[in-house]
Specification:
It is a single chain. This protein has about 120 residues and is mainly α. The chain has a domain of about 60 residues: Up-down Bundle (Methane Monooxygenase Hydroxylase, Chain G, domain 1), CATH 1.20.58. The chain is about 70% helix and about 0% strand. The protein contains four helices and no strands. Helix 3 runs antiparallel to helix 4. The N and C termini lie far apart (about 70 Å). The relative contact order is 0.05. It is found in: Membrane; Mitochondrion membrane. It comes from Naegleria fowleri (Brain eating amoeba). Core subunit of the mitochondrial membrane respiratory chain NADH dehydrogenase (Complex I) which catalyzes electron transfer from NADH through the respiratory chain, using ubiquinone as an electron acceptor. Essential for the catalytic activity of complex I. InterPro entries: NAD(P)H_OxRDtase_bac/plastid, NADH_UbQ/plastoQ_OxRdtase_su3, NDAH_ubi_oxred_su3_sf.
């Protein structure tokens, strides 16, 4: 019995969330108009027809740009924790982050010089 009385607020909020979400889903199903033309409901994906063959060749530049994006996105993921604990890290934290940025800068300059960022 102790277990039930201690967590009654959690049970209440869980039940309330399930109830509200169920009501919203039911209302969406009841209120929406039924359209026979179902192709209008599909998303428009990056300028490509969603009903065409999925095996279209992509230009290699798409892959190069995506790899560059992933690399610099990981850089931002390293910046957030570093910026939070910058006072505790002192000189070592500055040194390692600037070394990391220097390596990324060298890679970016290399990509730029090789023409990976130029669309032909």
């Amino acid at each position: 019995m102790y277990f039930l009385t201690e967590y009654y607020e959690l049970y209440f909020y869980s039940f309330f969330i399930l109830l509200v979400s169920s009501i919203i889903l039911l209302l969406c199903y009841v209120i929406t108009l039924k359209n026979a033309y179902t192709e209008k409901n599909y998303g428009y994906e990056c300028g490509f027809d969603p009903f065409s063959d999925a095996r279209n060749p992509f230009h290699v530049k798409f892959y190069l740009i995506s790899i560059i994006f992933i690399i610099f996105d990981v850089e931002v993921a390293f910046f957030f924790p570093w910026s939070i604990c910058i006072k505790e890290l002192m000189f070592f934290g500055y040194y390692t982050m600037f070394l990391f940025l220097f390596i990324l800068l060298i890679g970016f300059i290399y990509e730029w010089k090789k023409g990976a960022l130029e669309w032909e």
